[in-house]
Amino acid sequence: MTIAQINGTGVRLRAFRADDAEALAAGFDDPVSQRFLPQMPKPFTEAHADRYIAERVAATFAEGGVLYAIADPETDELLGGIGFDKVVAARRQAEVGYWVGPWARRRGVAGAALRALSTHALSHGLERLELLTHWDNPVSQRVALAAGFTREGVRRGAEPGRGDGREDMIVFTRLATDSGEPTPRLLPGLPGGELTDGVVRLRPLGPGDTTFLGELLGLPDVVATSVPPVPPTPERIRQRCFRAEAHWLAGTRADLVIEDVATGEPAGDIGLYYDDPGTQQAMIGYSMLPAYRGKGFPTRAAQLLSLWVFAETDVARLIAGAVPSNAGSQRVLEKAGFHREAYLRSRLPGPDGTRSDDVQFVLLAEDLLTEGPRLDG
Fold it and tell me: For residue 361, which of 293, 284, 298, 279 has the smallest C-alpha distance?
């Protein structure tokens, strides 16, 4: 059995060899690989690697798929692996997957290999490639977007976990008719990874924020103004933190932590929800810990986020709401430059099956140009 060698930018895709076993075992036994490749034995030994090279590669070819070693084109060192399987000949589609050893990460290896294999496969009979990633694997999601794949949806329970449960997977696809150019993002990353005015700092929510977010969103007054007004479960808190970057990459929401620059401590959260890109309208919402209320932090956070939104995205209208009794939140929005626009009756679900009215505010880019930011607390 022979396979065609594929050359990419800074990588070469070639057949696996017996002398790849040591590096293959090290790559598959790495904690990151073990997390996102739960079907692999744990621990993964050189004996497993020998069988993988001798049996798994051939079996994949026999089923219509392919497995390539990703190698350094200069040294021929093994960097990782890539291939496709689950071939449906009638639909001319397959599922692509890849891994990169810890010694070769953050060098663009996965992206280069994925672009090279996808271009080759989609010009030699296949017309659709699927790529599945875990929610908490934003690195792989970035690779997919950079290689011209489009986020298509979520496949529930698609991946068996190491325990008894199953995991939802995010589906990316690339068609033969796609350009292969990086997929544009509705919500780009923050410049330098944060926004700050010297008093508050906004940074992306992440897996390390579960304790803080649980405390914040469990406060009775925060629950009362949440939609719906129900305390989030620990699992919901965990999902929100671990999936935050995936939502950001999808362009649906950007969750941020508001930090006190002076202490570095989290003071609250603020989020951008881009639910209506067709009309270029997005919404913001925020919550603060009691110790940081009355210090102008949410006003500063709303202004920082608004400036970034209008400068870096295509959002044309930014809205926010507050229940009529929440005069403090309405004042925050007014000081941040928002204008009261509407009173929406029974818009929000309230406690025990009731409904609550919503006072809606709006901010336009021209408002900021006309009035300027007001960072006076």
Answer: 284
